[in-house]
């Protein structure tokens, strides 16, 4: 197992590069980790020597297959932990992000798989406290199926009039307009969590609305990748406007 500092560097490069899809400059790494340029340069050089990064001609670096395997595993741990802390324990999104950064280095892949499976099969009606000031409150006796499944009137209502939203800045992903940039505040229905985590969509993540399709599906950009989300799932994602 790599030291946590090296895992942090690989995870940061993975995130900056849109899940490892492009090369990354040293200044981007420094900005992401808030470290000194000299320290970042030495750490990156070490990762290049050990085969986790490839140094390119323009002095940027790119994850090798070996580095991508580590980075994607650490990033998944972070996503699962952050979602578990916010959705299941009601921890504030920012605090959950910091806690996940610490916990991700010591937790096993098996435990992460179990946490993910637990969220995927949580009892009907169970949901964590909304991290954005209780945007949405779910009654415990409400069946999970009813939470997840929007009605046709939901799909046809005018944008900005989300049935479960409170306040001007909170709505479902389905209510957003093309070009909007929003932050994920909550995912309703624990069964959705696992699929969305794998796509990089979890509380605290910034997403951009790229297109609204005729069938009500929403195309969003997450970490540099465009993802099409069905209207049923888009209805379960509560978002808030970015400051």
Structure description:
It is a single chain. The chain is an alpha+beta fold. It has two domains: 1-121, Arc Repressor Mutant, subunit A; 144-241, Roll (SH3 type barrels). The chain contains ten helices and eight strands. The protein has helices at 4-16, 26-33, 37-49, 65-88, 93-103, 109-120, 144-148, 152-156, 190-198, 231-234, and strands at 53-55, 61-63, 170-172, 181-187, 206-212, 218-222, 225-229, 237-241. A six-stranded antiparallel beta sheet has the order 3-8-4-5-6-7. α2 crosses α3 (37-49).
Ends distance: 38 Å
| Range of strand content | 15-25%
Q: What's the CATH H-level homologous superfamily of the largest domain?
A: Winged helix-like DNA-binding domain superfamily/Winged helix DNA-binding domain
Shape: globular
What's the arrangement of secondary structure elements?
Elements: H1 4-16, H2 26-33, H3 37-49, E1 53-55, E2 61-63, H4 65-88, H5 93-103, H6 109-120, H7 144-148, H8 152-156, E3 170-172, E4 181-187, H9 190-198, E5 206-212, E6 218-222, E7 225-229, H10 231-234, E8 237-241
Antiparallel strand pairs: 1-2, 3-8, 4-5, 4-8, 5-6, 6-7
Helix pairs in contact: 1-2, 1-4, 2-3, 4-5, 4-6, 4-9, 6-9
